[in-house]
Amino acid sequence: MTTDRPPAGAGPVDEGGRLEVLDAVRGFALGGVLLANLVSFAGYYVMTPERADALPTAPFDRAVRFGVDFFVEGKFYSLFSLLFGVGFALQQRRARARGAPFAPLFRRRMAVLLAIGLGHLFGLWHGDILALYALAGLALVAFRDAPDRALVRWAAALVWLPLAWQAALWLSGGALDPLPPSKAFAAWVQGAFGGGQKTLFELRSSPDPGEVFLGNLVNALWRPGQYLETGRPAKVLAMFLLGAWVGRRLAGDPALRALPLRRVVAGGLALGLAGSGVYAAVEARTGSSFSLSPLGLVQTAGYALGVAPLALAYGAALALAWRHERARRWLAAFVPLGRMAITNYLGQTLIGLSLFYGYGLNLMGRVGAVWLVPLAAAILFAQAKASAAWLARYRYGPVEWAWRQLTYGRRLPLRRAGPARARPGLC
Q1: If DSSP states are collapsed to H, E and C, what string results for 315-345?
Q2: Which partner from 49, 72, 190, 284 sits 20 to 30 angstroms from 256, CA to CA?
Q3: Is the predicted pLDDT of residue 293 greater than 70, yes or no?
Q4: What's the Cα-to-Cα distance from 385 to each of 13, 182, 191, 193, 333, rounded to whole Å?
Q5: Is the pTM value of this prediction over 0.85?
Q6: What is the chain's percent helix, strand, coil content, to nearest 5?
Q7: What is the pLDDT of residues 325-379, one digit of tens each?
Q8: d(CA 385, CA 319)
Q9: CA–CA distance, 275 with 277 (Å, rounded to integer)
Q10: What per-residue string of b and e applies to 364-376 under the rule 16 or more CB within 10 Å gives b?
């Protein structure tokens, strides 16, 4: 990847060039990502079934987790991925309008994002998605001149690739599975650093910060193997490509009238709810995701059929709502969240660690899933207020500002010269 300095005159788009509807959808998606991640922070993926069943809210928790698997799991990182692709297409169009080279600058942008993601992954929380976005973004550059039809065809193929891959792993008896070797290496690291035979739950909930860090490191080391086993990179790149296709249409029609939004909502709900129902039902029955078994393949097929269509339906529904003044006033509250998406995403990690991990309030295994819904709403509300207050004084979120400066290789003004002006929606 190149790290050449950007061409003179290159810089981030100013506020007047932003499509607020995209920021609103991004901010809304941040809420879904938060709820899905809180399930992980609360320890549901590492606590024993007996411990989960012993919680006083266990019957309600099972219903909430089924609802999260049905309506949330996978849909909102996919919506984020779609918006990433839209941004890619819009950035490419602006670069061409200036007569500036696009690919070197975008690769530099991804290199910086990769550094942020790796720091988050290994230093704070194993559930990071930014590093994967950066790597998939580097792959996306290869499609920058692909025709529209090719973008859609590649996206469709990549959505279903994980099913073919998992079928191959199952038929091979797991011989090709990248997860066991990565787990074995992680277990060796755990033993080498004094983690003994402790479970991930015990490490994460330990009052010793060193053990908490070790627990995260162990999980982070086998995370790439898990991603490869389940085909997550293909899923993310597929949504990037669909987003790029959408972004090319947005470039000539900021009001989104060229997109068949109502048909996307109807079709996306029909396919998405059916597929997501299959995924959630298998998850509830087995307690595991994407196992290398016939039932696991059924779950993978349900995920492929359900996640992308439902994510598209969510995005299209929000874009339709943005056209109406009353709904736009409500959705406008999500715009500051979306403009500071990475700052807020990383902030959610700090909040989750502080609440649930051993060096914080250590609520892991003590809070049922039923409480995660109001908790997510409260965190998102607080972040929306804080983001609005920050953006009234500053041009970018702090992480976004650092990302831009490292991308463009020069200091960019952060503080506003005057108060922020309210701008109407651009859609």
Answers
A1: HHHHHHHHCCHHHHHHHHHHHHHHHCHHHHH
A2: 72
A3: yes
A4: 24, 41, 44, 42, 9
A5: yes
A6: 75, 0, 25
A7: 999 999 999 999 999 999 999 999 999 999 999 999 999 999 999 999 999 999 9
A8: 23
A9: 5
A10: bbebbbbbbeebb
Q: Is residue 355 a contact partner of residue 43, using CB atoms and an 8 Å limit?
A: no
* Helix (H) and strand (E) counts in the chain: 18, 0
d(CA 296, CA 167): 9
Q: What is the three-class DSSP state of 394?
A: strand
pLDDT tens string 56-115: 999 999 999 999 999 999 999 999 999 999 999 999 999 999 888 999 999 999 999 999
Can you read off the two tokens belonging to residue 63? 């219903």
Segment 185-209 shows an average pLDDT of 93
Q: What is the pLDDT of residue 15?
A: 53
- Other C-beta atoms lying within 10 Å of the C-beta of residue 329: 10
Pair of tokens at residue 370: 């039923």
In sequence order, what are the residues at sequence separation of 6 or more whose Cβ sits closer than 8 angstroms to the Cβ of residue 189? 217, 218, 221
d(CA 315, CA 307): 12
Q: Where are the alpha helices (DSSP H) in 42-147?
A: 49-54, 58-71, 75-98, 103-123, 130-140
Q: Please, which residues have CB within 8 angstroms of residue 403's CB and are 6 or more apart in sequence?
A: 109, 112, 113, 116, 342
CB 339 within 8 A of CB 391: yes
With 0-12 / 13-18 / 19 or more C-beta atoms within 10 angstroms meaning exposed / middle / buried, residue 144 is middle
Q: Which residues contact 48 (CB under 8 A, 6 or more apart)?
A: 201
Least confident of 73-77, 298-302, 333-337, 422-426: 422-426
State whether the Cα torsion 297-265-141-145 is positive or negative.
positive
With cut-offs at 50, 70 and 90, classify the pLDDT of residue 174. confident
The Cα 413–Cα 396 span in angstroms is 9
For the chain, what is the radius of gyration of the CA atoms? 21
pLDDT at 212 over 50: yes
Statement: residue 51 has pLDDT above 60: yes
Q: Per the structure block, which two tokens stand in for 204?
A: 């994460």
Four-point Cα dihedral 328, 329, 335, 336, nearest 10: 180
